[in-house]
Amino acid sequence: MHQHCHHIYHTIVCLFRGKAHKIDLPVKLLAGSMVIVLLALSACNMPRKSATKTVSAAGMIYTAAAQTLEAELDTATSMAAIASSTPQPSLTPEIAETPSPTETEDVEEEDEDDYDYEGQPPAPPPPPTAVPCDHATYIKDVSYPDNTELAAGTTFVKTWRIKNTGACTWSEDYAVVFMGGDEMDTPSSVSMPHTVHPGETVDISVDLLAPSSPGTYRAEYKLRSDTNQVFGIGGNKAFWVQIKVTAATGLLLDFIANAKSAEWSSGLGSPPGTELEFDGAEDSVEGVAKIMDGVKLEDGSTSGKVLLTFPKHESNGYIMGVYEEYTVQKGDHFKARLGFMLSGDTCSGGDVYFQLAYKDDDGYHLIKKWNQTCNGGQTPVDVNLSDFKGRTIRFALLVTANGDPTNDWAIWNSPRIEHP
Does residue 329 lie in a domain region? Predict the structure, then answer.
């Protein structure tokens, strides 16, 4: 019996002193089991009724062990009570959070940014680039943006808004200079309108003339400093004006309406001849150029306004009118009806050459020639002037007697240049 109790005691002591560490029991269950065991040990120590109360040395040892175990069980029971009243953490073991690969890489990248491969701080950034003295930035077109349509020969003022983004002040000795392209009657340079400090803007303007022929035209410009250094926008880029000249349509030149301002002359042979006053006497031997209205024509009709050009009263004499400059565009046409005015209800014998010509620095040049006689009708004419497109010339109306000038009452009915 004592050996059996001694075995129980030894097991309990090992359990509480950690030698039975592999036994995995809840604290409450373990405490309850200890109470039962304690009762069993108490039973082991209970004396028999017939035994005397003599305690051996071994009994004393067991008694001391039991008291020690009782104290330890009391402690365990107290701890179990405390544990039962205190919220218990989950029995699932906590797993330490491992940074994601991205977070780890971010940390490593930050470390690499802060230090070089030798563990030294990175070199300081380079100093900012110095602002150049002369530097300009385009802001906008104030007038006539790209591809504005204009009629031929239109005068206009192009204006740009430019900002001084350099370190130097633009004085009035700075200028806008023409760099190339279509001149459009542009000046070679235009002075800066006023002083422009760094960071300020300025409106720069040039006076221009739209070309005489339809098409797209572009002129380019830059700025020039007071030390004759040429610079553009954003460094060295040009700024420009670009327009589209549209073709004029309808009646472009009325030879009757402009007859008075033409230069008239008469003579023999080749021009130039003798100056002739416009709207002179109809019977002048030098010939006559004047506007007639409501007269009878050879076809029996009554005219509106027509241009009478009677040549010099000599065989093969002529009369000519040279008009002011006109710039021809592609598609222009000269049109008229050619005939004779009746004089005394007749134009019998009338025989002339009607001629369309032009004058330039080299003299007079024939464009077209028609022989017309008094035959009871008017001859319509239509000349395509596209071969002269873009040229500014002075047209001339010329009538020459084919022999005897008697009854050469030659008229130009509705002479004009028009664009369909």
Answer: yes
